[in-house]
Specification:
23 strands; elongated; oxidoreductase; iron; vitamin c; Oxoglu/Fe-dep_dioxygenase_dom
Length: 486
């Protein structure tokens, strides 16, 4: 372990060393390369390389071409030194057989670029390294290397140390189940955070079983009748013939956005109420999976609570069935009884009474049991602000199932796609994005996903909070997010 030894750099490698075991073993070597001229020439060679934009749920930055076989003299010289005598020395003082595997790349982080919380664990990685080649840098510029504490389940908790990039400084840390870190978002618009990074490979540390989060509770619909629909929903979406058009489009693409979904006066009322201080917001984590705020439902203003009930109501489940063709209500016809149920569905959404709002619990249960299973849902009211995101993770992939996603945003007309906060759908274990849903005021987004489709919300960057004080977004937006299961 790095912290259990006294490090003396190998001959020919300069540096002032700092060792620390909190929150996990790491080492900082300042003035790592002895020649300022060498450092300047190395910077020049690196900046002349071709860089490619890299962007997914976890990061956004520019990465160079592969450095393993570059022949530029200073790049090749540093590579030989790192993976030659420095690797041998490091292996000796650690008492670990480090392999000669060359694993190194160059990255440029510029304004709004970021690498979110992760632990670097991948088969064969033993020691991570970063060599900074930056101009004079302050913490206000962002781009710090943030180190996280972990809880008893080996999940990251909070940042307890932030390392500010410094020219010709090498940082090393042990890759382990607790080595959670991030590169914070670069906030300066006129500097480039240039670095070389990679791993020394060797036997991995033993990893405990991965923590499995408890599943999110699901609930059946609330016994609310169509009165809620008539009060809240734009009348055009209650027209049966228009619902049939929506269903045709949805069945073709498995997604649709219904603009101006709520009545305008209702939408404005909820949007203003969401900014009230009475709502209590709780940060959702852990940061290697998500970072946003969710509302405590018992603190919602009355109109916001009513909107929440709308999205959980029996009438709304049936409306979603009509939009999508999914069996989210027993009145939604199976393939062999479309004609028998059409009249009943029209009765429900044309203003005639829905029985479950006045029925006894036993008769309501009987009604729900007409279908093969009871449709259920889970949901949140979320607040997205600078630094919010969700990430793909293994547990999500393992639990993926067929589901209907619903998002209803309250974001202000000036929220822009470049701020982030949009939802991306991707195929499991593939980089290709299948669909991107951008937040748009009062536009109900419906997406039906299968077991091989995952989603994430892109990091909300600094641009979202750098507008005028009179911006209607106030640097944040809100959404109702629900998932419905047949």
């Amino acid at each position: 372990m790095i912290c259990s030894i006294y490090l003396i750099p190998p001959r020919g490698i300069n540096g002032d060393l700092e060792l620390d075991c909190h929150p996990f073993p790491h080492c900082i070597i300042k003035n790592f390369l002895g020649s300022e001229t060498f450092v300047e020439n190395l910077q020049r060679e690196l900046l002349e390389l071709n860089f490619h934009e890299k962007s997914n749920d976890l990061y956004k930055f520019k990465q160079s071409d592969d450095l393993r076989k570059r022949t530029e003299p200073h790049i090749a010289g540093l590579r030989a030194a790192l993976f030659g005598r420095f690797r041998s020395w490091l292996g000796e003082v650690l008492g670990v057989e480090l392999e000669p595997t060359v694993d190194i790349s160059c990255a440029k982080y510029e304004y709004t670029d970021v690498l979110l919380c992760h632990d670097d664990e991948l088969e064969g990685r033993r020691i991570a390294f970063i060599l900074y080649l930056v101009p004079p840098w302050q913490s206000s510029d962002g781009g710090t290397l943030d180190l996280y504490t972990t809880d008893s389940n080996f999940q990251p908790q909070s940042i307890v140390k932030s390392l500010i990039p410094s020219l010709n400084t090498l940082v090393l840390f042990e890759v382990s189940p607790v080595s959670f870190h991030q590169v914070s978002e670069v906030l300066t618009q006129d500097k480039c955070r240039l670095s070389l990074s990679g791993w020394f490979h060797g036997p991995s540390l033993e990893r405990p079983p991965r923590h499995i989060e408890p599943p999110v509770p699901r609930s059946p619909h609330l016994p609310r009748d169509e009165t809620l629909l008539l009060e809240w929903v734009n009348p055009v979406y209650l027209d049966i013939s228009y619902q049939e058009q929506i269903q045709e489009e949805f069945e073709d693409s498995s997604e649709i956005q219904l603009k101006d979904f709520l009545k305008e006066e209702k939408f404005r009322e909820v949007r203003e109420a969401l900014r009230l201080t009475q709502i209590q917001w709780t940060r959702r984590g852990p940061p290697n999976k998500r970072c946003y705020e969710a509302a405590s439902l018992d603190t919602l203003p009355q109109c916001v609570s009513a909107c929440w009930e709308l999205l959980r109501s029996e009438a709304f489940f049936l409306l979603l069935s009509n939009f999508t063709g999914l069996r989210l209500h027993y009145l939604c016809p199976a393939d062999d009884d479309d004609d028998n149920k059409d009249e009943e569905r029209e009765d429900v959404l044309d203003g005639k009474a829905m029985g479950s709002s006045t029925e006894s619990p036993s008769s309501a249960n009987t009604s729900r049991e007409k279908g093969p299973s009871t449709p259920v849902c889970c949901g949140e009211l979320r607040r997205w602000s600078h630094g919010s995101y969700t990430l793909l993770h293994d547990a999500e992939a393992a639990r993926a199932e067929y589901a209907l996603d619903l998002v209803l945003p309250f974001c202000g007309a000036d929220w822009q796609s470049e701020f982030g906060g949009f939802t991306c759908y991707v195929a499991n274990e593939e980089d290709e994005e299948l669909l991107t849903v951008y937040p748009e005021d009062n536009s109900l987004a419906l997406v039906y996903r299968d077991k091989e489709t995952l989603k994430f919300v892109k990091h909300v960057n600094h641009k979202s909070s750098s507008g005028s004080a009179n911006s209607s977004t106030y640097g944040a937006f809100y959404d109702f997010s629900f998932v419905y299961y047949e």
